[in-house]
TrEMBL record:
Positions of transmembrane segments: none
The protein, known as: Peptidyl-tRNA hydrolase
Chief localization: cytoplasm
HAMAP family documented for this protein: Pept_tRNA_hydro_bact (MF_00083)
Residue positions of the active site: H20
Pfam families the UniProt entry points to: Pept_tRNA_hydro
Subunit: Monomer.
EC number: 3.1.1.29
One annotated Gene Ontology cellular component of this protein: cytoplasm
Annotated site location: Discriminates between blocked and unblocked aminoacyl-tRNA: N10
Residues with site note (Stabilizes the basic form of H active site to accept a proton): D93
Swiss-Prot/TrEMBL GO biological process terms: protein quality control for misfolded or incompletely synthesized proteins; rescue of stalled ribosome
Binding site for tRNA: Y15, F66, N68, N114
């Protein structure tokens, strides 16, 4: 059985460390933990790293399509590697949760998240694992787009980092135990 873990974000230095790139940050840490490196796969418009855990192949993917088009990278990779959507896990930022809170779900709607909306459209099902990392709501009347495309302020940065570490721990637990329900029970 093969698993694919996708972290959502926007490519380019301009977006490094922004709230919308929580998925990229989690995947970078996961790749480091598994001692693997990302390589650009131009055919799939994604950076891809591979590793084996307990004899099972695991693909780590960072789409390079920009957030709103994430599904354009995810669907061809699922098809090419013959991975069932139920073996897909997507890590992304969640504005509806407090900063750093991690929530795992086995399926779900986009909840207004454009990256997830794109994946739902291209993959054609909501039956894939969601790993949400809270970024909180905009403060002081800030527009949503400005909120997600800025870095955390010093007040929230520690909680955000804790959320990334917790998400990585949850993903590793899922991969190593091959059971997303157990991961949900342990980390939600």
């Amino acid at each position: 059985m093969t698993k694919m873990i996708v972290g959502l974000g926007n490519p380019g230095d301009r977006y490094d460390g922004t709230k919308h790139n929580m998925g990229f940050m989690a995947l970078d840490l996961l790749a480091k933990e598994y001692q693997t490196d990302f390589k650009m796969e131009k055919t799939f418009i994604a950076e891809v790293a591979q590793t084996f855990v307990n004899g099972e192949k695991v693909f780590l993917v960072k789409p390079q399509t920009f957030m709103n088009e994430s599904g354009r990278a995810v669907k061809p990779l699922l098809t090419y590697f013959n991975i069932d959507p139920e073996d897909l896990s997507v890590v992304f930022d969640d504005m509806d949760s407090p900063v750093g809170r991690v929530r795992l779900r086995q399926k779900g709607s986009s909840g207004g998240h454009n990256g997830i909306k794109s994946i739902l459209t291209h993959v054609g099902t909501e039956h894939f694992n969601h790993v949400k990392i809270g970024i909180g709501r905009p403060k002081n009347g800030m527009k949503v787009v400005n909120h997600v495309l800025t870095k955390f302020d010093s007040e929230d940065n520690s909680e955000a980092q804790d959320g990334i570490f917790k998400a990585v721990d949850a993903i590793k637990y899922y991969i190593e135990n091959n059971d997303f329900t157990k991961a949900m029970n342990k980390f939600n």
